[in-house]
Amino acid sequence: MKRQNRKLFKSQGGFSLIEVVASLVIITIILLSFFGLLIQSNKTGKSSEQIIDATYLAQKEMEKMYNYFKSTTIETWESNFPYLAEKDEVNSTGNITRYKVTPSNAKNKEIIIVNAEDISHDNTVRVTIEVYDSRGAILKAKMQNIFSL
Q1: Within a domain: residue 118?
Q2: 98 inside domain
Q3: Is residue 6 part of a domain?
Q4: 3-state per-residue secondary structure call for the chain
Q5: Over the stretch 30-63, which tens digit does the pLDDT of each residue have?
Q6: Which of 77, 83, 144, 146 could be disulfide-bonded to 99 (CB atoms 3.0-4.6 Å)?
Q7: In a domain, 1, yes or no
């Protein structure tokens, strides 16, 4: 056994330069593919977090609407609406009134659009809440509910 160990240490054989370079290239290719996966995973996680935050904001506003419509009547719902000061006259059409809400607790300065559609023949109001990114270009979350008065 000792003789074999001595032979290994005394021999002048080793790896050639081509073998070393080839192994380094293979290791580099493997590492680059893993880095690509990590970067894509990070982007997906960030996008998912933004969607979850936007959904939370929409849910919070919808709960506000639920509490409001629970305590109001068909005659007074429009005059006492919580977003009256933020009414968007330009984009309101027909029986759909649009409100542009800027929440104070928004993490990424999202923009919330609340559309209230009066369906007076049913004594109901359809409320649609849309959450956009800070520029108002990309829709992140949307919720819709019909409230009976």
Answers
A1: yes
A2: yes
A3: no
A4: CHHHHHHHHHCCCCCCHHHHHHHHHHHHHHHHHHHHHHHHHHHHHHHHHHHHHHHHHHHHHHHHHHHHHHCCCCCCCCCCCCCHHHECCCCCECCEEEEEECCCCCCCCCEEEEEEEEEHHHCEEEEEEEEECCCCCCEEEEEEEEEEC
A5: 999 999 899 999 999 998 998 998 899 899 989 9
A6: 83
A7: no
Which residue, chain included where needed, has tokens 């996008």?
A: 47
Taking CA atoms, 91 is separated from 3, 64, 98, in Å, by: 92, 23, 6
Domain enclosing residue 82, as ranges: 50-148
How many folded domains does the chain comprise? 1
The separation between CA 66 and the C-alpha centre of its own chain, rounded to angstroms, equals 23
* φ/ψ (deg, to 5) at 118: -85, 115
Residue 102 structure tokens: 């800027």
By C-alpha distance, which of 92, 95, 100 is closest to 61?
100
What's the whole-model pTM score? 0.69
Amino acid at residue number 143: M
